[in-house]
UniProtKB/TrEMBL annotation:
Protein's name according to its UniProt entry: Nitroreductase domain-containing protein
Residue stretches making up the Nitroreductase domain: 8-193
Signal sequence annotation: none
Species whose genome carries this gene: Acinetobacter vivianii
Keywords: NADP, Oxidoreductase
Protein family per UniProt: Belongs to the nitroreductase family.
GO molecular function terms noted in the UniProt entry: oxidoreductase activity
NCBIfam families: PRK11053.1
Amino acid sequence: MDTLATAKTRYATKAYDAEKKIPKEQFEKLLEILRFSPSSVNIQPWHFLIAETDESKQRIASGLTGNYVYNAAKVLHSSHTLIFCTRTDISAEYLEQLLQQDDLSGRFKDETAKQGQRATREGYVEFYRNELKNLSAWMENQTYLALGQLLFAAGLEGIDATPMEGFDRNIINQEFGLTEKGLKASVIVALGYRSKNDFNAKLPKSRLPDDVIFTRL
């Protein structure tokens, strides 16, 4: 599909057809696109939990109760649901893992280049940790870059998607032992195919006009 047409037609799906499943090869393609998402200094501070069985989707739905119960059916009827997790800190060991992966990928022409990347990445982490004091927000911003990449890729592939921030983070973090793994749940994304009863599919898109959101310098 054309990129502009995708931007104009994709939307947050409100109801899914539980009988329709994303073909395995196409879903794996989405995961690979997700893996190649951009992030500042390639910090990749994310981890993704993938639910495709009824049992695993029910576990996610356990965090969609009370004020968030309106989101439960989206998860339960989806083809797949992902939990986007963000690291709660950046350790020296993780920075070393990133650096060694860069090396394995052939990104350094020599040792000087490798050490330059080490210094740059460490410098960014320390800047956000100690000067701006918002390392957590900076990391979560990167996770949302990955979210945008997935949503647009799904639209191009003809797959419907729903990003959801309406969930009980404490329940989800506890259900999947995220805190102990140095992670926190940031956003949930349901994927699949819209139901014919999805009211949002019939509504026109609404965006502010160009002269409100753009200033041409």
